[in-house]
Amino acid sequence: MATIILTPPGSPGEDVENPGQKVLISMSTTFYPQEDPVTDLIIISSDNVFFSVHKRVLLFKSNNSFGAFLSEPDTNSIIVPESSNVLNLVLYAFYDLNPAHYTPSLDDLGEMLLALSQYGLSLEAPLAKGKPIYNLLSGFAFTFPLEVYTLASEYDLESLAVDASGHLLATPLHHLTDELCLRMGPIYLRRLLFLHLGRTERLKALLKDAPAHEPTAECGAIDQRLKLKAAWREGATSLCWGVNASTPISMIHAVLSPIADRLKCEECKTVAREKIRSILVDWTMVKSTI
Question: Which domain of life does this protein belong to (predicted)?
Answer without folding.
Answer: Eukaryota
